[in-house]
């Protein structure tokens, strides 16, 4: 029988691969298009997914990184592609980062998933709980990407 954490990490990787497979046939140009009635584009959604997962872990553990601080200005809550600059990670860079992120999280936190921290929003107090929340969030943005693709 697999241990419970192995199952969680397999879910994180599987759902991430679902996101990456949906954007596999999207071009850099298409990733920039904001269809009518949408606030963001595919590139923004990818960056937001990446940022959100690390941000929740950092909020819980209070271990902050310069990576998330830099990404906040482009992909944080309430931002839009209007905030993008030449320094904003490209569509291809974001796909690479997203592919690596589950591996990085597993390597960094596999032995700390059940460690208890002071509770944050929604009474979450373990990294395991945070990852479950980020899987749900990622699914919402996966649907946003699917909807955007229908309007390209």
Features:
single chain; 152 residues; mainly alpha; Four Helix Bundle (Hemerythrin (Met), subunit A); 6 helices; globular
Structure description:
The chain is an all-alpha fold. The protein has one domain: Up-down Bundle (Four Helix Bundle (Hemerythrin (Met), subunit A)). Helices cover 63% and strands 0% of the residues. The longest helix is centred in the last third of the chain and has 24 residues. The protein is globular. 28% of the residues are buried. The mean pLDDT is 95.
Which helices and strands occur, and which strands form pairs?
Layout lengths: L3 H19 L5 H4 L10 H20 L4 H10 L15 H19 L17 H24 L2
What is the domain total for the residues?
1
Average pLDDT figure: 95
Helix content: 55-70%
Give the beta-strand count: 0
Low-confidence runs = none
| CATH class assignment | Mainly Alpha
**Between the first and last Cα atoms, what is the distance in angstroms?**
44 Å
CATH superfamily label? dinb family like domain
Tell me the structural class. Answer: mainly alpha
CATH topology-level name: Four Helix Bundle (Hemerythrin (Met), subunit A)
User: What is the overall shape?
Assistant: globular
The CATH architecture is Up-down Bundle
Largest sheet features? none
- The number of helices is 6
SSE pattern, N- to C-terminal? HHHHHH
Query: How much strand?
Result: under 5%
Tell me the Rg in angstroms: 16 Å
